[in-house]
Amino acid sequence: MKTHIYSSLELPQSIVAIGAFDGVHRGHQTVIRQAVQRGRKLKVPSVVFTFDPPPRVFFQGARMLTTVDEKLAKIEKLGAKHAVVARFDKVYAGRSAYEFIDCLAKLNPVEIMVGGDFRFGKDRIGDICLLEKYFKVRVTQPVCCSEGSIISSSRIRQLISEGEIHISNSLLGWPAGK
């Protein structure tokens, strides 16, 4: 897998999965695998577009589940051809939704895959409806654990803070910190 900094990659076509992917938990793995499979089917490279640090860590001081290197190693194991890492800082957080769309346009996405709650741009002004004006967007369904609740990085953080390592590892799909 090739890793690129924000806006340095240009492709003639691609399938793009976008997300913070903190922890690369089972829900994230599903999104990335779907992008990789679509890319193989359509014979175009799969790209995972992610952020370092994750926006929730930047804005709310949440604990990171994985370092960027750990995240990239896990993404590579899932088969993505490229990863784009946007350095999420004050300058990046101030970019408009349209600047983000312009960056994505360089990847010439055949499809973009996002979660249902995906927002982008300054003040989270961009949403799936705006993205759909420019690209074909596929919204992935949330992945639930056996008890029916949605797997999320926030839930995993909470479980780890409560000492529920076995459950958090189950939701991650691999041991935390590995």
TrEMBL record:
EC number(s) recorded for this UniProt protein: 2.7.7.2
Molecular function via GO: ATP binding; FMN adenylyltransferase activity; riboflavin kinase activity
Catalytic reaction list: FMN + ATP + H(+) = FAD + diphosphate
Pathway: Cofactor biosynthesis; FAD biosynthesis; FAD from FMN: step 1/1
Keyword Nucleotide-binding: yes
Pfam entry (one): FAD_syn
Protein name, as recorded: FAD synthase
Source organism: Mesobacillus boroniphilus
Species lineage: Bacteria, Bacillati, Bacillota, Bacilli, Bacillales
